Amino acid sequence: MTVQNHLTSPASVYQQIYESDEFVELKRRRRGFVLPISILFITWYASYVGLACYAPQFMAVKVIGNITVALVAGILQILSTLVLATLYVRFTNREIDPEAAHVRRMVEQARRGESEQKLFGGNR
Q: For the packed helices 21-54 and 97-112, what is the interaxial angle rounded to 10 degrees?
């Protein structure tokens, strides 16, 4: 049976995490990448759907042979999805995951009661 100190209860640990500079920075960095990319992709996708619905003559324009603007735009939709997914994975592997692992280690230490000092904001 484990006796937990009230300073390291799950609620207090998670509250300290939520308010920590490290976690706030982690959320800011992730949001700084995800939000612009999401807006760009949704705009691109909505433009494709909008053109298909409201400008079918434009989408039917033949570019080369029987290849139309709609087909080219559709292929670009698929490719852009793959590119954005790849960029996101690279970004998270390089920028987010190491910081998330650091925060996770701090949580584990705090839950074990290894530190009586302020949990977050110190040196790594």
A: 140
User: Which of 106, 52, 44 has the alpha carbon at shortest distance from 80?
Assistant: 44
Q: What kind and span of H or E run contains 120?
A: none
Q: Which of 10-24, 30-44, 61-75 has the least mean pLDDT?
A: 10-24
Q: Stretch 37-59: mean pLDDT, rounded?
A: 96
The per-residue pLDDT for 1 is 33
DSSP sequence for 79-108: HHHHHHHHHHHHHIIIIIHHHHHHHHHHHH
Q: Which residues pair with 67 in a beta bridge?
A: 64
C-alpha distance across the termini of the chain, in Å: 31
Predicted pLDDT at 120: 52
Tokens 């992730």 sit on residue: 30
| Cβ-proximal residues to 38 (8 Å cutoff; 6+ apart), any chain | none
